[in-house]
Design brief:
The structure is a homodimer of 346-residue chains. In chain A, 41% of the residues lie in helices and 16% in strands. With 346 residues, chain A is an alpha+beta fold. Chain A folds into 2 domains: 3-180 and 222-277 and 319-345, Ribosomal Protein S8, Chain: A, domain 1; 181-221, Hypothetical oxidoreductase yiak, domain 3 (Wheat Germ Agglutinin (Isolectin 2), domain 1, 2-Layer Sandwich), CATH 3.30.60.50. In chain A, strand 3, helix 4 and strand 4 (107-113) form a beta-alpha-beta unit. The longest helix of chain A has 19 residues, at 87-105. Chains A and B meet through strand 4, strand 6, strand 7, helix 7 and helix 8 of A and strand 4, strand 6, strand 7, helix 7 and helix 8 of B.
Chain lengths: 346, 346
């Protein structure tokens, strides 16, 4: 597994995407977020996606150069049509609009449809938090999660993200699937030939199982919450309603569902209290919670965003290891497009 | 256990509260929400609370007649000081302001501090949903929940509620603690001398246990999510930041923390799409999800708000059974205040 610097990955990704027809702005936004995911330790959301995006462009599912259209708008809200451009570009523009509108209107809600794979929600809520606001984001996609007590796929993994600005502490950023785990984790176990760590899925007959292949033979992922899974299910349903119905992207169980429906919100802290004070109090919350004595099998308390921030520090120093198969796929795409990988790496 | 009609309970509650110094408006709001909780099947949030509120008033912790002050305000936000009036009155006024502001500004965020026990968040989000909007509410209170992987109490049970208007289906209303269960459930098990259904708490040394008394001997309730409890913990932390820091009520671990910090939000659907269409699509989402085949040990799929709605229909028909001890406490308070219970019941 070769290791690369973030800058090398960024140049490779940008080179490929521009050759695929992306504008410089698009290629920059998409690659920056993909490489950020790799740095954060979420390789499933990193440059591994480039080969998938190339296929999407060749099939006409991703349309480089698409404008993000404002369909309906008020001073504090907007409904966007992503016109099937890059998901990250739609997401980036939605966050920018959310920030601008919350700057003058305190709170803003931006929804988007016809939006391709938006990748990590944390990227957008962090953008909002970096502007002194509280960022909230949700998304839906295709059905793969069962309702609590049910067998059939009805919901998507429905991710949810909150980000809050801090002063000296690592910014608080939560980014979770509302299913017990993301589909990517199950695929990884399948490829490794391993069982899942717990019975996180059901087979096609509704029996709990830790065999990852059962998911791909008509099974479903459980909503998160275990024996109180109605809580994860309830939040998942709320996310489907906010991003699928209010956001006009369609709910998860629709047969023609693709891409992500997006719900994004910004809350301008200065309308409630001085931003400095808010940040100091966030720091204090994080520090105090981390002081809790750990349970027997834990080493320490980690707050949301902390594992990613540690990974980033380490990978900036040591480089990002890319799996052989991922690198092969990337170089194959580069060859097809006559992109000079060696040049990007130097 | 005597059974009463909702109207009887309402008259008893209102009679007692007015004798305790509540204005007619306050007594009406508080009793209406308490009786609604009984009808919904959540007796822990119902008229059982009246004796507790009486003690609160006698101790000076609840101040009947308090004005709800607007401390800071924009066209789409407000920070309220409840001045330690009845929590439900602060909550009711916050929802009204949220609705008014979202009517003209599409989205609104209202926070409140110095707020006594606000009771079920569903009451407020439902108020918002009845006005054709999406209602979101969160609250924090005193620490009783451990961080994921930690032993010490740091967070409150941090409830979270979402309500969406529907056309023909029962309104979608989620109202959950972000701990694995509410403290009230553990107290009920303790009083019945029963074990908890699962190891939902830890003892003072951080060992998982199903013995409810361990909670009251220095233990803590776990955040919800089981082996992915970092998700419930993360949402709980976000709620503490929104209601405790942005809402100025103080975070849960503060030693002098009391009452509820409140975060409330309204989103005006009409700014995104016709309300009728939204309601029809919510109906379709609910109906489709309920069509999932149930898992072996389940009879059907229930959506958020459905168990409460069924309980309400049944209890309106058959009456509300009040536990002997609760009724004794209520009649004791009534006697102390020379409230004629018999008259209220006729």
């Amino acid at each position: 597994m070769p290791a690369f610097t973030a800058h090398q990955l960024y140049r490779v990704g940008k080179g490929i995407l521009m050759e695929l027809g992306a504008t410089e702005e698009e290629a920059e936004i998409v690659t920056r977020f993909l490489v950020k995911a790799n740095l954060a330790g979420h390789d499933s959301h990193g440059v591994i996606r480039i080969a998938q995006y190339a296929k999407g462009i060749w099939k006409g599912e991703i349309v480089p150069g698409s404008a993000t259209e404002v369909v309906v708008e008020t001073p504090s809200s907007a409904l966007l049509n992503g016109n099937w451009g890059f998901g990250q570009v739609t997401g980036f523009r939605a966050s920018k609009i959310a920030i601008e509108k919350a700057r003058s209107s305190t709170v803003s809600v931006i929804c988007a449809y016809n939006c391709n794979h938006i990748d990590r929600l944390a990227d957008y809520t962090m953008m909002i938090a970096e502007n002194g606001m509280i960022g909230i984001a949700m998304a839906n996609s295709v059905k793969i999660v069962s309702p609590y007590g049910g067998i059939d796929r009805m919901l998507s993994t429905g991710p949810l993200s909150y980000a809050f600005p801090t002063e000296k502490e690592v910014p608080f950023v939560l980014d979770i699937a509302t299913s017990v785990c993301a589909e990517g984790k199950i695929r990884v176990s399948l490829h490794k030939g391993e069982k899942l760590p717990h019975k996180w899925i059901i087979d096609k007959n509704g029996q709990l199982t830790d065999n990852p292949s059962d998911l791909y033979e008509g099974g479903a992922i459980l909503p998160f919450g275990g024996e109180v899974g109605y809580k994860g299910f309830g939040i998942g349903l709320a996310i489907d309603a906010l991003s699928g119905i209010l956001g006009r992207s369609g709910v998860a169980y629709h047969d023609n569902k693709r891409g992500n429906g997006v719900f994004m919100e910004a809350i301008n802290i200065e309308s409630f209290m001085p931003l400095d004070q808010f940040k100091r109090e966030m720091d204090e919350l994080i520090r105090t919670v981390k002081k809790s004595r750990p349970m027997p099998r834990f080493k320490e308390i980690m707050v949301p965003g902390e594992p990613e921030s540690r990974s980033e520090r380490q990978r900036i120093k040591k480089g990002v290891y890319i799996a052989e198969k991922t690198w092969e796929e990337l170089t194959d795409v580069a060859k097809t497009l006559s992109v000079d990988i060696e040049k990007c790496l130097n």
